[in-house]
Every structure is written in structure tokens, then in C-alpha cells.
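pinned: reference chain
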Amino acid sequence: MDWNDPRFEPLPVDLPLRFVTDDPTGQRFQVAYYLCRSDHTVHCAITFGPACAGPPDHAHGGAITAILDEVMGYAAWGRGLSVVTAKIDIAFRQPVPIGIALRAEGRVDLVQERKVFTSSELIAPDGKALATARALFVVLPDAVIVALKRAGKLPPEPDPVA
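pinned: its C-alpha cells
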């Protein structure tokens, strides 16, 4: 994947109190997110670090789930939807190696009132899916969003994608 392609817009990853992105040491994850404006997907360049180990030399399922959850959440937030995860379903297809550059893709599949349905994949360098996910996110009520903004606990709002 050519992350310098003008279709990809880097997304901020220096947000505090985020399990995935708040790791300045890179021991858990080395990660960068990109919004592809042409198809509204979020792409992630990801390398799992040694602190993600589950089976020897491979990532723990919880770490894999965190990446897929976050790439789907970013896809929703990139559309201007302030969401939280309500339900997530993961299919682990192959062991995920530590220390190898991988990519993840996430997208919004459907929006029904406050329900936001998403999907994502973790993809090996050879193009094979290592894990896939589907999730239901819910849009936060306006009162919660206002309270979080006042407390400075929401990330900067992206320009919504049409």
C-alpha cells in the first residue's frame, strides 16, 4: 500500500488515553491511520510489538481485536459519527505474527438511526486476511457528547465525509 497516495489522508494518533495509539514506546503497537476519501474506508499500517504477545512470536487475540475495533471506530468517527462499540464479532483466520508490517481496513457498512454497522480486516503482506470483524457501534446521545466536549475528552472532530 502506498501511504503517500494523495487519496490517503493521515489521521491523528497522538490522542491521550487510547489503548492502541497511546503507546510512545511501540512495545504494543506501531500504528498509523489513513482516511481514504474516495471510498470512505480507514486504513491502518500496523506492526504488533512484543507486548502484544499471546502465543510465542504471535499477537494475542485481544490485541488483534483492539486494532480491528479501532479501525472500525475511526471509520465511523471519520464520517462525523460519535460512536462507541456495542458488539463486536471477530474471526481469527490465521496466527498474526509479531514484528511484521501488516495493514487493516475498516468501513461503515450501514447507518440506521443510532446504529452504525461496520466491518474490518487485518491483512498480511501477501493479501490474505488474518482476521476479520463485524461490529455494531451506537451513536452517543447528544447530552453525552456535550458533556465529553466540555471535559475535553473527545478527539478533534474530523471533517465529515459525505
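why pinned: The domain at 8-150 is CATH 3.10.129.10 (Thiol Ester Dehydrase; Chain A). The chain has one domain: 8-150.
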